[in-house]
Design brief:
Elements: H1 3-16, H2 26-45, H3 52-61, H4 74-85, H5 90-107, H6 130-141, H7 146-159, H8 164-177, H9 181-184
């Protein structure tokens, strides 16, 4: 996976959707990452997990999602399927945290592919509860190193068998379909 391509895609989409109209501090961007991690905690508290199999089944079987319905655009079907089976789940919120980091990396022009994600040392998440793991990842956010934060999220997802890159791709597709400023959010 080329993380710089994900960085560029996330940043370009954020610009197109109005999220970079004014300069914001590093603390602003990193706080938004923390907010996504806390939304993942809330999703976990509600036992809300993505239903990947149902989503994929809908995408592959729906005439709308295949673009075969003459009066409904394919994008509408994809957005509905995403909202029905993935939105606001643990996996979706973790993908959001990564996308926020990719966008921030675009803001600061950070090369994400110069870090050795495969052979780097990460914390062991196997004995941590979900909340402990999110707290631990948040402590990395406070160090301001985007690659290390991503590395810890990837390590957590690997430990929990979450295909984070699949979820990032689905969320990016969904975000690209959303309206400008996602319905007038301030940030």
């Amino acid at each position: 996976m080329n993380l710089n391509e994900l960085r560029d895609r996330a940043y370009k989409n954020a610009v197109a959707h109005g999220w970079h109209g004014e300069d914001k501090s590093h603390c602003h961007w990193l706080c938004l990452v923390i907010s996504e991690l806390m939304e993942a905690v809330e999703a976990d508290r509600k036992d809300n997990h993505a239903e990947k199999e149902y989503y994929e089944k809908r995408i592959s079987n729906s005439l709308v999602c295949k673009g075969l319905h003459p009066s409904i655009p394919k994008e509408k079907g994809l957005a509905v399927a995403f909202r029905d089976f993935i939105k606001d789940s643990v996996e979706d919120e973790l993908a959001d945290a990564c996308i926020r980091l990719f966008d921030y990396a675009g803001v600061i022009d950070c090369d994400l592919d110069d870090f050795d994600y495969e052979n780097s040392d990460t914390d062991d998440y196997s004995e941590m509860t979900f909340t402990e793991a999110m707290y631990n990842i948040t402590s990395y956010v406070m160090e301001w190193n985007v690659s290390e934060i991503l590395n810890e999220i990837f390590a957590f997802c690997k430990d929990r068998k979450i295909d984070i890159f699949w979820h990032i791709e689905q969320k990016m597709r969904y975000n690209e379909l959303r309206p400008y400023k996602h319905g007038n959010k301030a940030y």
